[in-house]
Amino acid sequence: MANDYFRTPSIPSQLLTALRATVVFLVLCGLIYTSVATFLGGLLFPHQATGSLIERNGQTIGSSLVGQPFESTQYFYGRPSSADYDPTATAGSNLAPSNPELRERVSRDSEWIQAKEGVNANAVPVDLVAASGAGLDPNISPEAAELQAPRVAEARGIPVATVRAVIKQHTQGPQWGLFGQPRVNVLELNLALDAQQ
């Protein structure tokens, strides 16, 4: 009777089966699959797998996938960022179009652009006052780049036609010809202008 008291209870066969399945799927999905996917990603897409980093003179200056602020008049600027261009804090503002705080921010940005570019409110492309969902979109529309071309050309002391030619060279079509709109990567555009000078 005492031996029965200290006997380890048997584990039901259904529980053993569930534990085995858990371990098998943990190894398959958690280790093997992720290792193979990481290896193939690095092999087939080495630039993208490492963050699409852009280097100049051995120094990383940004990523073609992440927007960043440009304040000098010689540079194009991108979309506003609700994450303050912090890649560790990607997020939209989640403010509804009817929210007074959003309306005030858009109005303030529009007035700043009008003053900086010497245009009226109707000429300001919507992507220059609207943050993207993640708040880090590195691209602007060709129209947004064209709006800034005269200022950038004047600040750099080069013809507007030269700046517009660089914009055209860096305008990408929709993804795979199907998804999205034509776009211009702001960092790559600014670097291309720096390289020309």
From TrEMBL:
GO CC, alphabetical: plasma membrane
PANTHER family, A to Z: POTASSIUM-TRANSPORTING ATPASE C CHAIN, POTASSIUM-TRANSPORTING ATPASE KDPC SUBUNIT
InterPro entries: KdpC
A molecular function (GO) term: P-type potassium transmembrane transporter activity
Transmembrane parts of this sequence: 21-45
Keywords carried by this UniProt record: ATP-binding, Cell membrane, Ion transport, Membrane, Nucleotide-binding, Potassium, Potassium transport, Transmembrane, Transmembrane helix, Transport
Record flagged with keyword Glycoprotein: no
Subcellular location: Cell membrane
Reported function: Part of the high-affinity ATP-driven potassium transport (or Kdp) system, which catalyzes the hydrolysis of ATP coupled with the electrogenic transport of potassium into the cytoplasm. This subunit acts as a catalytic chaperone that increases the ATP-binding affinity of the ATP-hydrolyzing subunit KdpB by the formation of a transient KdpB/KdpC/ATP ternary complex.
Family stated for the protein in its record: Belongs to the KdpC family.
Subunit structure: The system is composed of three essential subunits: KdpA, KdpB and KdpC.
Pfam families: KdpC (PF02669)
NCBIfam families registered for this protein in UniProt: kdpC, PRK00315.1
Naturally occurring in which organism (per UniProt): Shewanella fodinae
UniProt topology in membrane: Single-pass membrane protein
Protein name per UniProt: Potassium-transporting ATPase KdpC subunit
